[in-house]
Amino acid sequence: MSKRFSRMAALSLTLPLIAATFASCGDDGTYSGVNSNSNYTYNYKTEAEENYSPNTVNPNEEYKHVEETGFKDPKSEPLSTFSADVDTASYTNARRMLNEHQIVDADSVRIEEYINYFDYKYADPEEGKVFGEYVELADCPWNPETKLMMIGLQGKRMAQEELPPSNLVFLIDSSGSMGSYNKLPLVQTAFSMLTDTLTENDRISIVTYAGSSETVLAGASGTDKDEITEALGSIMASGGTNGEGGIETAYELAEEYFIEGGNNRVILATDGDLNIGKCSEKELTKLIEQKRESGVYLSVLGFGTGNIKDNKMEALADNGNGNYSYIDSVAEARRVLVEEMGGTLFTIAKDVKIQVEFNPATVTSYRLVGYDNRIMNAEDFYDDTKDAGEVGAGHAVTALYEVQLANEPAKGTYHGIELEFADNHEGTTAASANGRDELIKLSVAYKDIGTDEEVYSADLYGMEKYNAVPTQGIKLAGAAAEFAMLLKGSEYAGNSSFDYVRETALAIGGTNEKINELGDLAQKASSLY
Questions:
Q1: pTM greater than 0.70 (yes/no)
Q2: pLDDT tens digits, 426-437
Q3: What whole-number distance in Å separates Cα of residue 104 and Cα of residue 525?
């Protein structure tokens, strides 16, 4: 199918809704766009939106509360261990709230997802390696008494022709709650754009779920673009939300058309408002943990406003060896499913874990910025049975530490793990005497995507990574972190301000739309907070 036809097909899914908006929009900002084939009425404003005032947190959206991780003393806690995270849903969801002039729910803010939304232009890994590393140290912009340490892992990039064939199941929530203009119609447009990238080697199935699940398409070739697009366009919103039934059916199809060595993945599109069958966060987590043993990955795309169940969608993706994105526009759908398709859909490393050991002779305290629900026990790093995050082709993982440096000396093992800087703990010689003046030991562990064997690497970094004049990358990461901390109401925000975020974005943004948008969002936030 030609690109022109594909674009027309995608537009055909949304133009009727847009026309209905302008044709029947009333003075109160609502419209009735009843489809002749359905009794469901599309409402421009959801019932939840009618019942709360602007500039307040929506009471019908659900987010999981997680306490922030504070400063740690490397003498007693030398190891910081966490799972990789490449999700970005928290940032785009906040963008939606701010664009609707709403206060951002503090529990919706996962700081690492704000940081990881942006591209820091890390160098490619060396030939034959899955990851490349980047470390930089600079003055902390929100705390004059600390430094900001930036750690980046860059996954290897893959050209289109290098990507393995895909066996994809579009699992679409078609319940009544998905009827809004920014839900099912946007889902259909997003999947239509992804369809345009498919090849003859790919297989596509479509499953919907409302009161029950239904197989709309099974095992179609990626070249059957007309058939796939027509199947997408036929889906209407009505009924309850039996997510459990849809998940069961989707995984059955994924296993039926399983491609050995290929990308076998269920892509769930939903607002997360499940209300039939297993629908609690705990029940869904247990269900997905069982399903992931099949070798099928799960990606979750969140849509809409008013009744988002972010806690359930994040739990599904985290436990399904997948990623979680929130789609608030056609542009974001294109970014996630077309421009960054390799990172979204093609995993290059499983169970990626990062462990940073701090030298107590050179660092008196440290704080991991974000990743509060990704923290792992130190001993989990070498336990290959512990689940962690997946990283896709070309994706990067960025973490920030706020660290306080020292020049004076401060145990041999910690949680059974031999320490690199054991000689620098209490009762031993100083760093200046034994030559151990590094700041950190950075260790990375992951499972090889082909052999499933655990791979480990470790490197030492010190003050040679300090830049008196910080790079644009660490400036951007710091601004993103400040923005998140302000929205979260973090006790560690220090001197952070929306003005600083806006000015930093303006100074380094240039023609980069994502960075410039960060500045615009900071401006909008400053009028609400």
A1: yes
A2: 544 444 444 588
A3: 9
